[in-house]
């Protein structure tokens, strides 16, 4: 048994509305599998089917080699689940809540609970109703991880977490995988998952559009390129760029003299594929500034989906703005 | 360290505050009503006053029997204030057990752990039974304590039967709420079902007693099944008690089957 989850032809209807139209995917044991899609794509419904919280209308599901609907309680003991919206009881503390979940899903080492709480910087003795959204999310993560399950099913695990805690979460995922666990997680944005996931499925409107590795997506990804150079005419810069494989959408202009060295040329373009040919070409220029952004994997996904490069100006500007924080400056 | 009946124990420990509050309410009601019997029920002036009331009203309130200690206890405590408080407590617990828990999003996480749905319904129903039993025993003890001082003259055997029916009636509206919650996943339907059993039972009894034309309504009233023969005065109708507990058991079973078969949290 090398696959932790196998889903075939999964369909789910609520009344007359079908929200999953035949979803197929498999998750290898000991890997992290991310499912990405906009809100309402069917991520939560898929996950609930794995836990037997809701039942498929058609299709087969195998979780750790068993049918979740027939396997009963022993199977769920081997799974850690984080719901998409963590709801907690009001009149209790985190510790008492975890003790209850340990009682129905244990065994749990108390030492492990304290250790995780410390790493997540979570006070278990506070009243749950006084916890912030992020702290509730931490408590939800803790109950999913605390019994060291073989399979973790995490719905939007990083939602509400600040970046530092997200790093803690990613290290918890890595450790779980190092100990042989399988992780199935979801997000509505790829950038949250790309760090953790080995493979990524894109779910849209109840269908899996593509399953790919982050590495493949990265190769197919489109990067934004921008640089300034001096001493070369705008036309020549344009011609140079045009010869580099993978470069497109080239725009070159000469900058006005104020504030820049005379003859400064600014060029923007997109790059898909390998970086090395571009670097070789740029080495011939006298660069004063260079920005090559993190590949935008969401655009990469769209590229795979539509089979063509998405229109650059339309809709791209917002995403690019969001990504420019992580841009590499050379 | 798997514990025995973890959901049952949690349901009980989570609700100790509300159980205590209902216990205080019942105690206050008993302490206010029963000691007044010598000056109300046994008082001839009071009887004249009641005779002056419209007979429809005295029948609806069961005040036609308050001239005796057992009749007074039956009409005021078991038939009215106690019935009201117990029904409210039981419906509240029944509605929270599945419907309320699901609607607040908590049930999803519980079911993702190593429990079965039947277990959830049965253990939580058991917790309702224990709480209803606790309050009923409290009522029994308090009435017994006041029996002498308040000159009620209640036969202890009859009191046992009456308290068993009192508990059965409260449990019926609680399990109706539990069952409706398990069927629909909505707290409001659960409360509506539980309240309907209690309120319609009371109303059908009050109306059915008015004239032979509407007497058939009595057959639809669990309240009348339990109290039709004034158990505090005359002893329990054991068939009715068995029937009421049987229906509650069936409602719990139906709730368990319903929850087992449907999607949760949608």
From TrEMBL, chain A:
Molecular-function annotations in GO: ATP binding; ATP hydrolysis activity
Localization annotation: Cell membrane
InterPro entries found in the cross-reference section: AAA+_ATPase, ABC_transporter-like_ATP-bd, ABC_transporter-like_CS, ABC_transporter_ATP-binding, P-loop_NTPase
Major subcellular site: membrane
Membrane topology term: Peripheral membrane protein
Top-level taxon: Bacteria
Alphabetical UniProt keywords: Antibiotic resistance, ATP-binding, Nucleotide-binding, Transport
Gene3D superfamilies per the UniProt record, alphabetical: P-loop containing nucleotide triphosphate hydrolases
Record-stated family: Belongs to the ABC transporter superfamily.
The protein, known as: ABC transporter ATP-binding protein
Biological source species: Paenarthrobacter nitroguajacolicus (Arthrobacter nitroguajacolicus)
Polar residues biased stretches: 306-318
GO biological process terms on file: response to antibiotic
Start and end residues of each stretch annotated as Disordered: 306-330
GO (cellular component) term, any one: plasma membrane
Residue span, ABC transporter domain: 5-230
TrEMBL record, chain B:
Pfam families from the UniProt entry: ABC2_membrane_2
TM region(s), chain numbering: 20-40, 77-100, 121-146, 158-181, 188-208, 238-259
Top-level lineage group: Bacteria
Single annotated GO MF: ABC-type transporter activity
GO cellular component, one term: plasma membrane
Keywords attached to this entry: Membrane, Transmembrane, Transmembrane helix
The UniProt record lists the keyword Transmembrane helix: yes
Descriptive protein name: ABC transporter permease subunit
Species of origin: Paenarthrobacter nitroguajacolicus (Arthrobacter nitroguajacolicus)
């Amino acid at each position: 048994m090398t696959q932790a989850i196998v889903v075939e032809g999964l369909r789910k209807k609520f009344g007359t509305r079908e929200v999953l139209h035949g979803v197929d995917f498999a998750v290898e044991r000991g890997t992290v599998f991310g499912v990405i899609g906009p809100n309402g794509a069917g991520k939560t419904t898929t996950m609930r089917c794995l836990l037997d919280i809701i039942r498929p209308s058609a299709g087969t599901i195998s979780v750790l080699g068993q049918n979740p609907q027939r396997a009963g309680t022993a199977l769920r003991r081997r799974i850690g689940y984080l719901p998409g919206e963590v709801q907690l009881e009001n009149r209790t503390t985190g510790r008492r809540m975890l003790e209850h979940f340990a009682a129905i899903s244990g065994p749990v080492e108390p030492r492990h609970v304290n250790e995780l709480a410390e790493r997540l910087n979570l006070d278990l003795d506070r009243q749950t109703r006084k916890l912030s959204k992020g702290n509730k999310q931490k408590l939800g993560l803790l109950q999913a991880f605390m019994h060291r399950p073989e399979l973790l099913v995490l719905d939007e695990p990083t939602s509400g977490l600040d970046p530092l805690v997200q790093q803690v979460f990613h290290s918890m995922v890595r450790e779980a995988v190092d100990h042989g666990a399988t992780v199935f997680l979801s997000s509505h944005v790829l950038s949250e998952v790309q760090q953790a996931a080995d493979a990524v499925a894109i779910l849209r409107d109840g269908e899996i559009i593509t399953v790919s590795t982050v590495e493949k997506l990265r190769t197919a990804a489109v990067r934004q390129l921008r640089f300034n150079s001096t001493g070369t005419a705008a036309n020549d810069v344009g011609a140079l760029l045009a010869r580099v494989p993978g470069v497109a959408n080239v725009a070159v202009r000469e900058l006005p003299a104020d504030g820049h060295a005379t003859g400064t040329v600014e060029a923007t373009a997109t790059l898909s594929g390998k970086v090395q040919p571009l670097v070789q070409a740029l080495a011939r220029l006298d660069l004063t500034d260079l920005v090559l952004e993190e590949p935008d994997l969401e655009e990469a996904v769209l590229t795979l989906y539509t089979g063509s490069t998405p229109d650059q100006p339309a809709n791209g500007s917002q995403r690019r703005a969001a990504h420019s924080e992580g841009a590499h400056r050379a | 360290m798997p514990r025995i009946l973890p959901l049952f124990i949690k349901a009980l420990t989570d609700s100790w505050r509300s159980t205590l509050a209902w216990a205080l309410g019942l105690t206050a009601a008993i302490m206010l009503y029963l000691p007044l019997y010598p000056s109300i029920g046994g008082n001839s002036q009071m009887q004249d006053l009641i005779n002056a009331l419209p007979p429809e009203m005295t029948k609806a309130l069961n005040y036609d029997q308050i001239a005796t200690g057992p009749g007074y206890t039956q009409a005021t405590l078991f038939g009215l204030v106690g019935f009201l408080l117990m029904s409210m407590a039981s419906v509240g617990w029944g509605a929270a057990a599945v419907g309320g828990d699901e609607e607040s999003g908590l049930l999803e996480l519980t079911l993702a752990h190593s429990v079965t749905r039947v277990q959830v319904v049965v253990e939580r129903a058991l917790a309702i039974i224990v709480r209803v039993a606790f309050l009923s025993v409290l009522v029994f003890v308090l009435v017994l304590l006041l029996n002498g001082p308040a000159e009620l003259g209640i036969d202890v055997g009859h009191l046992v039967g009456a308290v068993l029916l009192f508990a059965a009636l409260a449990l019926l509206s609680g399990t109706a709420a539990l069952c409706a919650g398990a069927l629909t996943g909505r707290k409001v339907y659960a409360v509506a079902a539980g309240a309907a059993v209690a309120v319609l039972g009371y109303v059908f009894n009050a109306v059915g007693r008015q004239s032979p034309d509407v007497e058939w309504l009595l057959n639809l009233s669990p309240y009348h099944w339990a109290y039709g023969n004034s158990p505090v005065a005359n002893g329990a109708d054991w068939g009715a008690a068995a029937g009421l507990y049987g229906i509650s058991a069936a409602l719990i079973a139906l709730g368990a089957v319903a929850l087992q078969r449907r999607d949760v949290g949608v």
